[in-house]
């Protein structure tokens, strides 16, 4: 049974595939930040909302962290388009600037290497055609233990303890198999 010989079935499959493609394009066009730990800056006078999130959720010192922003009209939820942005990251002692960021569709991100642990402020300045919006967000970088020989890139203490437990289990299994194999070989030689 060939699908091309049945025009109604072919039209139905074409219709279904068109619906799937259309629904995917709508989802992509309306993409706002949907993370669980979103920070928001709202200016009701200027009718603008800034959503901010960073990844990974627990930044690692001297490893890139992506700082993501979504700028939206507060009433409609639609992206603000065609504006310039500036991002400053500071811990009160150091200061790093991302300047002259041109944003066409309302979403943008920058990648930053946090040099040390603690709380850092991420300051943004959004320059739209008719207003300037300032906002501030916090990023907490947890304290990280120095690497060990068994785990040169530890994520956190519980991860390190879990890895050590798995290593101990694997070593125990390997030694047990080696002793059992050696015992069988000695028994067969006698």
What's the topology here?
Blueprint: H1 7-29, E1 39-43, E2 48-55, E3 64-73, E4 83-90, E5 95-103, E6 107-113, E7 118-127, E8 132-141, H2 157-189
Antiparallel strand pairs: 1-2, 2-3, 3-6, 4-5, 4-7, 7-8
Q: Which key features would you list for this structure?
A:
190 residues, alpha+beta, Immunoglobulin-like, 4-stranded antiparallel β-sheet, 35% strand, elongated
Write a compact overview of the structure shown.
The protein contains two helices and eight strands, in the order αββββββββα.
- DSSP strand content: 35-45%
Task: Give the ordered list of helices and strands.
Answer: HEEEEEEEEH
The number of helical elements comes to 2
Instruction: Please state the CA-atom Rg, rounded to the nearest Å.
Output: 27 Å
CATH class membership of the largest domain: Mainly Beta
What is the distance, rounded to the nearest whole angstrom, between the alpha carbons of the first and last residues? 70 Å
- Helix proportion: 25-40%
CATH architecture of the largest domain: Sandwich
Average pLDDT value?
79
Oligomer: single chain
Secondary-structure content class: alpha+beta
Largest sheet, if any?
4 strands, antiparallel
**Regions with little confidence, pLDDT below 50 for 5+ residues:** 9-31
Strand order of the largest sheet: 1-2-3-6
Structure explained in plain terms:
With 190 residues, the chain is α+β, with helices and mostly antiparallel strands. It has helices at residues 7-29, 157-189, and strands spanning 39-43, 48-55, 64-73, 83-90, 95-103, 107-113, 118-127, 132-141. The chain has three domains: 1-30; 34-141, Immunoglobulin-like (Sandwich), CATH 2.60.40; 151-175. The chain has two helices and eight strands. The strands form two sheets. It has a four-stranded antiparallel sheet, with no helix packed on it. Strands 5-4-7-8 form a four-stranded antiparallel sheet, with no helix packed on it. The longest helix has 33 residues, at 157-189. The chain is elongated.
